[in-house]
Q: What sequence folds into this?
């Protein structure tokens, strides 16, 4: 871990103490996880405190952990990973928060702190169905007008549910159930840790 | 008294100056924009979801199709994310080739941006000049990868192959006689590096030509000076990066501040704007092209003197050479496993960002140890820029909306993903 990362990690631990559920420094990046209830407050502090100085929100990414790894996922399903950048201090942090309810995931919106969160949160809502409470304009953004479902959830098939075509009899574009068969060219495999290890027999 | 109501018009999705499929719903008070509501997603292909169903390497060509005017920079961020997850080191020559092609890509992108921006707001000639130079650079793309645009040249661990020793030549045909072909092939006699060096010798003069066309052009200035002014605080709060941020006077460039590959070994300057309007951003892009030219020249020098491998030697990640694959059992197994099952990437998450011509292009990759990504999130710079459309266009005339779209350098491949 570089000196700078160590300083930031220490600073974050001092500032937030108990609020941080985990602080992970991995591959030169710092990830902090907070509870959904603390998310907004922690974000505000990260922005407002000059010693932290995260004046830029780079990205908000929705995450669905339901099929992670080989085993069944134990924890909460939906999360938002917010990437923050400090131009002043030249460091980054990833702020993660898991939504409490899997059936109706809700997180606080950080739109009031960083304007750039507006569209990123709309995207996470559109693709994952994560609700951002306090968002000024939580509409769908990437999918079609009138789209049903949240396509990036792991239980949503890659080919979708409906397809669109022009119907010459009716003289208009119609929706119909998909006609293509789902197929997988390369299966998804998670190997054991020792896979390919020559010394391991 | 008659009731006065705002007028709502629809701009796009098929509008020549919308740079793709942007639909804007504009609320107008006379000719003044009261509210601009961009509707995006008309080009949404679900790249991130598709990436989850393919092995890590199979998604590299998808990256070309994100921002389809700066192909190799997209690949770069994606490959960098995989390399960071694997903890893989790219050979030095591979790094130099990447930096060189990143800068070639930057020139390609800015040429298109400046050309079409000028075209949008009334200067027809620019686009003809800039496309002439783009042609040479696309030939460079083609020589190295076989494709003029969607190269798929960067691979996890380095680049697909070393630079070619010969440039492809024009052939005599029904349309091109021997004399024309001789002229066209004049600077293609040597290697790719010779051709590129010839280009870098010519390019500063071309930049001067563009400047005489635009920089002091009265109409150009009337259309861009004081239009879409963004203060540094706003630019940061709106998540601006790249030329959009530097145009507002914030000195921030990942190539300098968080250097990746060999950017800390090459010499270049970062231009910064003062007023944060469309004109300053144009000047920043102009200077960036000159600086990119400088970087390309340094890379050519280095690449001439230092032969070596261009892709990592770890055959769990990078495929073995064709000849060794045919004579060596071990390599054959590696080859088979790589092309059927793919790379196994250890669990973890990384965010790899590059200074893309448009801003910060980042790839947030989550792996659970499988041969496919668990989640890939692409952070497109244009997405954040376009999100600020409402604030930037408010209070401007409707004609200035076009100038603002142009200065944002939006490309829908990356915004809609």
A:
């Amino acid at each position: 871990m570089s000196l700078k990362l160590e300083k930031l990690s220490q600073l974050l631990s001092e500032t937030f103490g108990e609020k941080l559920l985990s602080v992970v420094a991995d591959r030169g990046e710092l990830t902090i996880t907070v509870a959904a209830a603390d998310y907004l407050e922690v974000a505000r502090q990260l922005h407002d405190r000059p010693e932290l100085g995260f004046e830029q929100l780079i990205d908000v990414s929705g995450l669905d952990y339901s099929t992670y790894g080989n085993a069944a996922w134990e924890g909460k399903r939906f999360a938002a990973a917010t990437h923050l950048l400090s131009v002043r201090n030249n460091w980054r942090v990833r702020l993660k928060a898991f939504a409490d309810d899997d059936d109706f995931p809700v997180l606080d919106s950080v739109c009031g702190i960083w304007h750039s969160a507006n569209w990123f949160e709309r995207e996470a809502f559109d693709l994952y169905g994560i609700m951002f409470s306090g968002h000024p304009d939580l509409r769908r953004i990437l999918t079609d007008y009138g789209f049903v479902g949240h396509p990036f959830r792991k239980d949503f098939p890659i080919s979708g549910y409906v397809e669109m075509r022009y119907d010459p009899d009716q003289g208009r574009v119609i929706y119909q159930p998909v006609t293509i068969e789902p197929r997988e060219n390369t299966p998804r495999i998670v190997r054991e840790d020792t896979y390919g290890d020559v010394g391991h027999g | 008294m008659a009731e006065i109501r705002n007028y709502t018009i629809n701009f796009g999705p098929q509008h020549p100056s919308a740079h793709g499929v942007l639909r804007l719903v504009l609320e107008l008070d006379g000719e003044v924009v009261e509210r601009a509501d961009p509707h995006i997603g008309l080009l949404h292909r679900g790249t991130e979801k598709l990436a989850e169903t393919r092995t890590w390497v199979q998604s590299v060509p998808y990256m070309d199709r994100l921002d389809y005017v700066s192909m190799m920079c997209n690949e770069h961020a994606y490959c960098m994310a995989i390399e960071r997850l694997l903890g893989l080191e790219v050979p030095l020559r591979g790094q130099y080739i990447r930096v060189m092609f990143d800068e070639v890509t930057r020139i390609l992108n800015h040429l298109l941006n400046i050309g079409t921006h000028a075209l949008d707001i009334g200067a027809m000639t620019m686009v003809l000049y800039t496309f002439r130079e783009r042609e040479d650079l696309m030939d460079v793309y083609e020589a190295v990868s076989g494709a003029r645009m969607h190269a798929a040249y960067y691979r996890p661990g380095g680049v697909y192959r070393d630079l070619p020793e010969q440039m492809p030549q024009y052939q005599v045909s029904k349309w091109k006689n021997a004399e024309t072909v001789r002229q066209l092939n004049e600077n293609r006699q040597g290697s790719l590096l010779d051709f590129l060096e010839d280009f870098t010798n010519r390019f500063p003069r071309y930049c001067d030509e563009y400047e005489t066309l635009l920089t002091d052009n009265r109409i150009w200035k009337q259309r861009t000076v004081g239009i879409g002014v963004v203060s540094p605080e706003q630019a940061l709060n709106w998540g601006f990066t790249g030329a959009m941020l530097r145009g507002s006077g914030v000195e921030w460039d990942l190539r300098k501040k968080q250097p990746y590959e060999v950017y800390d070994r090459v010499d270049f300057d970062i231009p910064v704007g003062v007023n944060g309007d469309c004109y300053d951003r144009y000047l920043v892009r102009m200077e960036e092209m000159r600086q990119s030219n400088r970087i390309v020249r340094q890379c050519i020098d280095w690449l001439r003197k230092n032969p070596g491998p261009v892709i990592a030697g770890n055959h769990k990640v990078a495929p073995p050479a064709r000849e060794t694959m045919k004579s060596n059992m071990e390599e054959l197994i590696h080859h088979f496993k790589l092309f059927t099952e793919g790379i196994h990437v250890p669990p973890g998450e990384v965010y790899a960002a590059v200074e893309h011509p448009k801003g910060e292009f980042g790839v947030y990759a989550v792996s659970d140890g499988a041969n496919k990504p668990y989640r890939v999130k692409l952070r497109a710079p244009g997405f954040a820029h376009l999100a600020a459309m409402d604030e930037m266009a408010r209070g401007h005339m409707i004609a200035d909306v076009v100038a603002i779209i142009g200065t944002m350098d939006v490309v829908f491949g990356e915004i809609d993903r």
Remarks:
- Strands of chain A lie at 20-26, 29-34, 56-64, 78-86, 91-98, 106-108, 131-133, 162-167, 172-177.
- The two ends of chain A are 34 Å apart (CA to CA).
- The CA atoms of residues 191 and 197 of chain A lie 11 Å apart.
